[in-house]
Amino acid sequence: MLRSFLMLAAFFGFTGVALGAFAAHGLKNRLSADYLAIFHTGVSYQLVHALAILAVAMLSVHLPGRLIGWAGGLFAVGIVLFSGSLYALTLSGVSKLGIITPIGGVCFLAGWACLGLTAWRLG
């Protein structure tokens, strides 16, 4: 679990920084201010949850169990659905892609709940 989550954290961290730079330099003059803000929201959530996956990786060494694994997995799925749908929406202009975004948000919430339950079970 450690290696998998470290690799996911590195991937999402790397791509989050790259996408943030792409937005700041490559999309600044191509997207409306509203769409640029939406894209930046996706980047912000991706980077925050890349760090959360990194924390899960470190915790998985000391707190083995299903809940910690679920937390990391839900954070990763949340990034793909939440941030990915925002990127796709802004780059394609297809507003219906926004329907997917809340599903990713629920994945983030469920991941944090799993992390909280893991802490609760520590006694």
Automatic annotation (TrEMBL):
<feature type="transmembrane region" description="Helical">
    <location>
        <begin position="39"/>
        <end position="60"/>
    </location>
</feature>
<dbReference type="Pfam" id="PF04241">
    <property type="entry name" value="DUF423"/>
</dbReference>
<keyword id="KW-1133">Transmembrane helix</keyword>
<keyword id="KW-0812">Transmembrane</keyword>
<keyword id="KW-0472">Membrane</keyword>
<dbReference type="InterPro" id="IPR006696">
    <property type="entry name" value="DUF423"/>
</dbReference>
<feature type="transmembrane region" description="Helical">
    <location>
        <begin position="99"/>
        <end position="120"/>
    </location>
</feature>
<feature type="transmembrane region" description="Helical">
    <location>
        <begin position="67"/>
        <end position="87"/>
    </location>
</feature>
<protein>
    <submittedName>
        <fullName>DUF423 domain-containing protein</fullName>
    </submittedName>
</protein>
<dbReference type="GO" id="GO:0005886">
    <property type="term" value="C:plasma membrane"/>
</dbReference>
<comment type="similarity">
    <text>Belongs to the UPF0382 family.</text>
</comment>
